[in-house]
Amino acid sequence: MEGLIALMIGVMTAAGVFLTLRGRTFPVVLGLTLLAYAVNVFLFAMGRLQTGVPAVIREGVTQYADPLPQALVLTAIVIAFGMTAFLIVLALKARSEMGNDHVDGTHQPIDEISKKQSYHSKH
Fold this sequence. Notes:
By secondary structure, this protein is mostly helical. It has four helices and no strands.
């Protein structure tokens, strides 16, 4: 089971890095989301998630779940959601001002964009 979880974390991290290095904003947002998921699964795996045991320490209970990984993952989920929302708003603003969704910020005038769109629609 640990091997499968490690493989999942590796695949999500590799896909996240691959998508983050793309030139368009939507794949970058997806890549950052995949990286956040990979970190969350990594935190769960490192916290030795247990089922069926209490999370609060009481007398007479010898085994209990560590609530720290769950609290860290919950915080990471909230931060990732806020970061994703900010990136989407930033990407929409950049697209409305520059006319494209390139992450390098290259400005293309509107007439060049319309020429490219008309060229692609004809061919």
